[in-house]
């Protein structure tokens, strides 16, 4: 394969690279932190709201908000890539923030569980449009040489803010109650995210076009030039071993995240933990995940993608099994740290795989297809975990997901080829 273009190659007035685009890159990191915060406002409070306020006794019913969120976000991810190619990245980002504005208000005023489910449909649209677009825009700006590092910063910002907000809302709920005070943070995040996106963020689609003009012809002609959306979906989902393995691993990753979001707080509450301690555990996992991605994104640029993803999925499986086996706070805290570390190894690296393989001409749509599969894992995980928990108990549901997660690591080890151009 021909060597990739330099990280900061000039193309007319467009320059690719982290240093030359640092101001816009940093702004997009801040915007994605607000995106993560919108999700973090729910992580501690909503499972407890389902149990203590709406008195939903069936786990499957209690997790319907995650099903609604995951299914909507997955579909929106798919269209976000296509829309950002057709209309530009910035309009899609702004539209995502407009959809976010009523979400915290619906959660505050919801008179029935159906309102909470509808709020999560809107949240899924918000997350699909905004998070997908910030990923695409950062890939556009940095070029090929720093892709893993860029994804590390992007995901670290989003999940670091998610963790901080989960901890903050847990503390607020412990002091003032489950509603309305914890959701005031969401109101501030949505207003600030919309303002920054509309007034300060600049369009990056021309950066992708500039990279496409410099992009070498790959050895596999199926990866070059313009493809239809159907061809891109088939390549990303099935025919390319790296892209499809990444899609499968991403789906299982978010399947176990749905478990951590919806089932873990209920397990901890059943063992008598306070809301404050549940909030701490809910924050610990995404905090390690968020901070760790700065290192692991950079690391994948040095050692390659495949082995980091394999090890991360296996470590997640071990961590989830430890949650199932544990009965006390110290064991669960250790498991949350391990789960965060494993997820940090996987999350930015999977996105970097998509960026490595997909041609710039159709990369945004490939990201959309990958994120369709990945975030579909929320819906699959909520349905699977809820059904198993209702039939066999919380612990059986957790053990099952632990096995599935480890199996995904084995699939990557056997099927994925290394995608990083330096290796």
Describe the structure.
The chain has 423 residues and is mostly helical. Helix content is 79%, strand content 1%. It starts with 9 loop residues before the first strand and ends in an 8-residue tail after the last helix. A two-stranded antiparallel sheet has the order 1-2. It has a single domain, classed as MFS general substrate transporter like domains (Growth Hormone, Chain: A). GO terms for molecular function: transmembrane transporter activity. Its main location: membrane.
What are its keywords?
single chain, 423 residues, mainly alpha, Growth Hormone, Chain: A, two-stranded antiparallel ribbon, 18 helices, 1% strand
Low-confidence stretches: 1-12, 217-224
Question: What is the straight-line distance between the termini?
Answer: 11 Å
The helix fraction, in percent, is over 70%
CATH architecture: Up-down Bundle
Structurally, how many domains make up the residues? 1
- State the helix count: 18
Q: What is the percentage of strand-forming residues?
A: under 5%
- Principal-axis shape: globular
CATH homologous superfamily - what is it? MFS general substrate transporter like domains
The helix/strand series, from N terminus to C terminus, equals: EEHHHHHHHHHHHHHHHHHH
The level-1 CATH class: Mainly Alpha
And the CATH topology?
Growth Hormone, Chain: A
Largest sheet, in brief, is: 2 strands, antiparallel
Radius of gyration: 20 Å
Protein name: Putative MFS family arabinose efflux permease
Keywords: Cell membrane, Membrane, Transmembrane, Transmembrane helix, Transport
Membrane topology: Multi-pass membrane protein
GO molecular function, one term: transmembrane transporter activity
């Amino acid at each position: 394969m021909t060597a990739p273009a330099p990280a900061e190659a000039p193309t007319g007035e467009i320059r690719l690279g982290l240093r030359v685009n640092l101001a816009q890159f940093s702004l997009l990191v801040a915007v994605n932190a607000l995106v993560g915060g919108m999700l973090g406002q729910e992580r501690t409070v909503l499972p407890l709201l389902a149990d203590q306020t709406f008195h939903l006794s069936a786990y499957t019913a209690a997790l319907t908000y995650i099903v609604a969120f995951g299914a909507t976000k997955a579909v929106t991810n798919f269209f976000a890539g296509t829309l950002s190619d057709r209309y530009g990245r910035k309009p899609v980002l702004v539209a995502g923030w407009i959809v976010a504005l009523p979400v915290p208000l619906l959660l505050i005023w919801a008179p029935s569980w159906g309102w909470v489910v509808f709020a999560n449909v809107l949240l899924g649209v918000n997350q699909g449009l905004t998070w997908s677009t910030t990923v695409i825009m950062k890939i556009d700006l940095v070029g090929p040489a720093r892709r893993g590092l860029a994804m590390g910063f992007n995901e670290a910002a989003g999940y670091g803010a998610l963790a901080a907000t989960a901890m903050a809302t847990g503390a607020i709920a412990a002091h003032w109650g489950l509603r309305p005070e914890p959701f005031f943070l969401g109101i501030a995040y949505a207003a600030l995210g919309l303002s920054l996106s509309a007034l300060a963020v600049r369009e990056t689609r021309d950066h992708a076009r500039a990279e496409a003009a410099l992009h070498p012809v790959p050895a596999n002609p199926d990866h070059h030039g313009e493809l239809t959306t159907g061809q891109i979906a088939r390549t990303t989902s099935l025919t390319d071993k790296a892209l499809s393995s990444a899609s499968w691993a991403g789906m299982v990753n978010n399947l176990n995240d749905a478990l951590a979001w919806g089932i873990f707080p209920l397990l901890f509450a059943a063992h008598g933990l306070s809301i404050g301690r549940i909030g701490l555990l809910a924050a610990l996992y995404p905090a390690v995940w968020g901070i760790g991605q700065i290192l692991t994104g950079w690391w994948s640029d040095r050692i390659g993608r495949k082995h980091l993803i394999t090890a991360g999925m296996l470590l997640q499986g071990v961590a989830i099994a430890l949650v199932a086996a544990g009965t006390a706070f110290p064991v669960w805290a250790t498991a949350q740290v391990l789960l965060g570390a494993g997820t940090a190894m996987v999350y930015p690296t999977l996105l970097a795989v998509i960026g490595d393989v997909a041609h710039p001409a159709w990369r945004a749509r490939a990201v959309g297809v990958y994120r369709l599969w990945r975030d579909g894992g929320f819906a699959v995980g909520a349905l699977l975990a809820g059904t198993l928990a209702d039939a066999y108990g919380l612990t059986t549901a957790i053990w099952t997901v632990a096995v599935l997660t480890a199996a995904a690591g084995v699939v990557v080890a056997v099927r994925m080829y290394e995608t990083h151009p330096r290796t």
